[in-house]
Amino acid sequence: MPNHLLTLLLGVTISFSSYSQADSVYILGLQECVDIALKNNTTVKRSLLQSENAKINYNQARASQLPSLNVGGSYGYNWGRSIDPTTNQFVAQEINFTGMNGSASMVVFNWFSLVNTVKQNSILLQSSQYDAEKARNDISLNIATFYLNVIFNKELVETAEYQLENSQKQLDRTKKLVQSGSLPRTNELELISQVASNEVNLITAQNNLNLALLNLKQGMMMPSTQKIDIIIPEMEIGTGSESLAPVEEVYNDALNNMPEIKSAELQVKGAEYGIEVARSGFTPTLSLNAGFSTNYSDAFGDRFIEDPNGGGSYVTNPGLQTASGESIQVFQPAGDYEEYGFGDQFRDNLSKQASLNLSIPIFNNLRNSSAVQRQKIALQQAEINVVEQQNFLRQTVESAHNDAVAASKAYSARQKQLEALEETYRSIENQYNLGAANFTEYQVASNNLFGAKSDLVRAKYDFIFKTKILDFYQGKDLSF
């Protein structure tokens, strides 16, 4: 599944970053913020490691279908009475010996246990990849929230600056009128108080912006001392709640797009294969085995070679006697001794073996039965998890849709409120300049206008973000 959230983020703003040598401030687009967060976040790193571990398990399961091959060797030194490994006879001398062996084995048939294990691990690998994607989505969505919050607070700062600028202009004009005697000194003092109040509002807005930037840096796991600023994209506002897709349509799209749903569904399939793997414990296993071994001993360093032309003689063997005590003569063939080297002994002592083994389980202390029961429980748990994920997704989508509808209505209402308060402010301001309205009326109109502008900015970005959340669940390619 394509990463729809990253597509959303690319649509929010053009990917761009730059570094200012003069003031050492990083200017970041939203995509750069997301990339930095994904690179640094430990949750994402952990999910990627879990996916790598699942990949290792899958590769191991595939390799289990191949034959195993092992070779080994030994070297030893015996003294005193011991057994010559090449002749199996007792000797009483120092012996240097060495040997080599090898073995190979392969499961020919075990009722598809290996095949089902491979399929199960393949599904679990895919599930872990979806889990990693969800972790990336969660972090990306979190960064998007921080990013839009910075934009929101930037506009609030601009609104506070505009309000302070207007108050300052009004104060400058009033000072001139007071100096000319057209207005009383109290009007000037009241405006000085208003300017001070607006300065406090600007300081508060700037502090909130700094906090929003700090939250963004913390989300990216950047040091708080690093100075950053963000790119503000051009954003278009939708026409209203009528442009939102029906909640059931959003939910159905989310079922097909969200990685957590796909991961949960794959866990069910993995548990089904797990039952088949466990059931194979009741079935016979047929395996093929082969091996070899050979050795060398310096106790058998020479060997007797018979003369190919024949010949020989009878000699008395003092170790052999008849019952009456007479010596027995044995035939000693003609020939001579020659060196029996390392290569010759290894070749002559080589032993090979191959076997076909059948193992039929009869009773294994209920281990196989318990394994099947555990896998059935795991399947039920996986099925419950799917239902839980679907229910949680439905609740999330329904809440997001309801929030988007409410945000749309709030944004429309704030627009109308601002239009009315702007007209009221202009009227009160004209009356105040003409002396027909007092300062209290002017101050109330000014504060109401400032509050309405702040509320509109808040409603604007609340509506933008919540509509984009719905678009994210639908898997759309988005742009502002």
Task: Describe what is shown at a glance.
This protein is of the alpha+beta class and 480 residues long.
What attributes characterize this protein structure?
single chain; 480 residues; alpha+beta; 4-stranded antiparallel beta sheet; 3-stranded mixed beta sheet; 13 strands; 60% helix; elongated; disordered N terminus
Overall description:
The protein is α+β, with helices and mostly antiparallel strands and about 475 residues long. About 60% of the residues lie in helices and about 20% in strands. It is built from 10 helices and 13 strands. It has a 4-stranded antiparallel sheet with strand order 3-6-8-13, covered by helices on one side. Helix 4 packs antiparallel against helix 5. The N terminus is likely disordered.
Secondary structure blueprint with pairings:
Layout (H helix, E strand, L loop, with lengths): L3 H9 L4 E4 L4 E4 L1 H11 L1 H22 L4 E11 L2 E3 L6 E3 L2 E15 L3 H68 L4 H35 L7 E4 L16 H11 L1 H21 L5 E13 L4 E5 L5 E10 L5 E7 L1 E5 L2 H7 L2 E9 L7 H68 L4 H36 L6
Parallel strand pairs: 2-7
Antiparallel strand pairs: 1-2, 3-6, 4-5, 6-8, 8-13, 9-12, 10-11
If strands are numbered along the chain, what order do they take across the biggest sheet? 3-6-8-13
Terminus-to-terminus distance:
23 Å
Would you tell me the overall average pLDDT? Answer: 85
Please count the helical segments: 10
Output the radius of gyration. 44 Å
